[in-house]
């Protein structure tokens, strides 16, 4: 491996006109054997991490973007990143009120009295008042905050949860985070005692979970979602999975659940949620509920969102020992502020001594970024009826929601119309996960190329259309089935064209590899 790298760099040194740059990379690589930190000596757990959402396909998409910028001839004019749930990258407009408040917090000079008259021509009064209130608490966005997050923001999150669930929430049990990702990592780190610690993860799953378990060397205990029943959880399967893991000496301690699902887009029924809580209660398993898509609900009458906390509360005293951590984020919903990195987790029934340890652990990182915390405040406490900004806020959120709902249906319909493809509708989240039966010849061609068949399909799709999706094998899938995950985030005015591209590619792929 090292020789290969050294050889490749040597030839790039010869060929490259940018001599200094090539020499620098060559010297750092070819001398690697003399270094303390090498690919062999480094942390194996890091090397074992796999994260398909930003894997081979995403890297190839990046290099195609460079080719387009250099005007190389390609069969498409732009690369469309459907590999990641990143709405603003695909031009979703940020919520105006949120950006108004954020910009005032960033530039407090705008708030001084002498600028007020000019300011009021650009900003509504409620945005100004909110920024002033936030700045009273944080002093400056450039200051470290409390390590759990700004206390007043945590109180607002608690009120938001109370309003959502009709159940009290304790701000001391709410920690603000840099996106849900860092919250999930913190909690999995705390739960993992050693390699024998088992954490149940869904298959298919969002690879944050498998990647984090690799990093902390915990043992993943997979359970399958049932594609033929709209990706529901099958309790018998889950029981069997715990039993088998425990019989092998794995100390199964926690269950990760993503609701609404990623990559699968299902929204769990109340009945299913009760069964899961009962299962965790019976088996003494901590429930980790990833609820980042709680407002991406597209069939609210038939499949509304129920938080695990609300249902747990409704199940009464008998279940009061259940340990639950739930995660939320500013990256999803209609907010879509992924790059700002904000989120929170709430702990219910977690031992106070453990909470103190978590507090100590997050304190070592000083605090989550304050800009992200401000967005958490705005998400939890947006403009209310009667506020000056309410009508515009409502209109913007409503327009994004309705459009996502239409695009969700369009994309599932598009895949269902293709030969050999079946696709469950997206009840929630931002993705569809169609099943694709690939011709034997394509499977053989993939094997020859050393690729998973669904990866092979997705790479050919990227080459032909510029559309970047993620192969199902990046999330896990039932043996001998092939899937892909695509977001339905491309802009609505381009959506028909986007679907037509996919249809044309699929037909050509089938013709090329016809059995
Ligand atoms: N949990 C789930 C289920 C997610 O889908 C994501 C992000 C996260 C947590 C973490 O998000 P933040 O850290 O930004 O809050 N979803 C990734 C994905 O599948 N595509 O885009 C990012």
UniProtKB/TrEMBL annotation:
**Pfam families, per database record:** Aminotran_1_2 (PF00155)
Q: Which residues form the signal peptide?
A: none
Keyword hit for Protease:
no
Which terms are listed as keywords in the entry?
A: Aminotransferase, Pyridoxal phosphate, Transferase
Q: Where would I find the Aminotransferase class I/classII large domain in this sequence?
A: 124-499
GO molecular function term, any single one? pyridoxal phosphate binding
InterPro entries on file? ALAT1/2-like (IPR045088), Aminotransferase_I/II_large (IPR004839), PyrdxlP-dep_Trfase (IPR015424), PyrdxlP-dep_Trfase_major (IPR015421), PyrdxlP-dep_Trfase_small (IPR015422)
Per its UniProt record, the required cofactor names are: pyridoxal 5'-phosphate
So what family is this one in? Belongs to the class-I pyridoxal-phosphate-dependent aminotransferase family. Alanine aminotransferase subfamily.
Q: How does it assemble?
A: Homodimer.
Q: What is this protein called?
A: Glutamate pyruvate transaminase
The uppermost taxa in this organism's lineage are: Eukaryota, Fungi, Fungi incertae sedis, Mucoromycota, Mucoromycotina
């Amino acid at each position: 491996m090292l020789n290969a790298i050294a050889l490749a760099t040597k030839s790039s040194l010869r060929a490259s006109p940018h001599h200094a740059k090539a020499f620098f990379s060559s010297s750092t690589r070819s001398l690697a054997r003399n270094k303390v930190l090498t690919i062999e000596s480094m942390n194996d757990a890091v090397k074992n991490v796999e994260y398909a959402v930003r894997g081979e396909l995403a890297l190839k998409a990046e290099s195609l973007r460079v080719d387009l910028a250099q005007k190389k001839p390609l069969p498409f004019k732009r690369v469309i990143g459907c590999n990641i749930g990143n709405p603003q990258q695909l031009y979703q407009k940020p919520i105006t009120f949120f950006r108004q408040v954020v910009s005032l917090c960033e530039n407090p000079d705008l708030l001084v009295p002498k600028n007020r008259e000019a300011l009021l021509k650009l900003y509504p009064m409620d945005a100004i008042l909110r920024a002033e209130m936030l700045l009273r608490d944080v002093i400056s966005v450039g200051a470290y905050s409390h390590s759990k997050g700004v206390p007043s923001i945590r109180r607002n999150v608690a009120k938001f949860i109370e309003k959502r669930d009709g159940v009290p929430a304790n701000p001391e049990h709410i920690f603000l985070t840099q996106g849900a990702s860092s919250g999930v990592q913190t909690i999995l780190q705390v739960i993992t005692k050693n390699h024998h610690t088992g954490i149940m993860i869904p298959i298919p799953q969002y690879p944050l979970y498998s990647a984090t378990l690799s990093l902390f060397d915990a043992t993943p205990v997979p359970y399958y979602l049932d594609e033929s029943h709209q990706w529901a959880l099958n309790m018998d399967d889950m029981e069997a999975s715990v039993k088998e893991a425990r019989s092998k000496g794995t100390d199964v301690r926690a269950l990760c659940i993503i609701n609404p699902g990623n990559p699968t887009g299902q929204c769990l029924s109340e009945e299913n949620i009760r069964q899961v809580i009962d299962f965790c209660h019976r088996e003494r398993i901590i429930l980790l509920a990833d609820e980042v898509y709680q407002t991406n609900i597209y069939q609210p009458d038939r499949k509304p969102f129920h938080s695990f906390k609300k249902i747990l509360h409704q199940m009464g005293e008998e279940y009061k020992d259940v340990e639950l951590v739930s995660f939320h984020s500013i990256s999803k919903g209609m907010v879509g502020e992924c790059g700002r990195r904000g989120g929170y987790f709430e702990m219910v029934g977690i031992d106070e001594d453990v909470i103190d340890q978590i507090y100590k652990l997050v304190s070592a990182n000083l605090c989550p970024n304050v800009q992200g915390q401000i967005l958490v405040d705005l998400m939890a406490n947006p403009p209310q009826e009667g506020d000056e900004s309410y009508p515009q806020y409502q209109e913007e959120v409503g327009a994004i929601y309705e459009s996502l709902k239409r695009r969700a249906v369009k994309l599932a319909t598009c895949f269902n119309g293709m030969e050999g493809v079946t696709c469950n509708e997206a009840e929630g989240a931002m993705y569809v996960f169609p099943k694709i039966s690939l011709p034997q010849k394509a499977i053989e061609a993939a094997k020859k190329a050393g690729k998973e068949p669904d990866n092979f399909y997705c790479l050919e799709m990227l080459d032909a259309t510029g559309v970047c999706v993620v192969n199902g094998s990046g999330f896990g899938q039932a043996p001998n089935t092939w899937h892909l995950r695509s977001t339905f985030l491309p802009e609505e005015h381009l959506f028909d064209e986007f679907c037509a591209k996919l249809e044309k590619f699929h037909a050509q792929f089938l013709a090329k590899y016809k059995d």
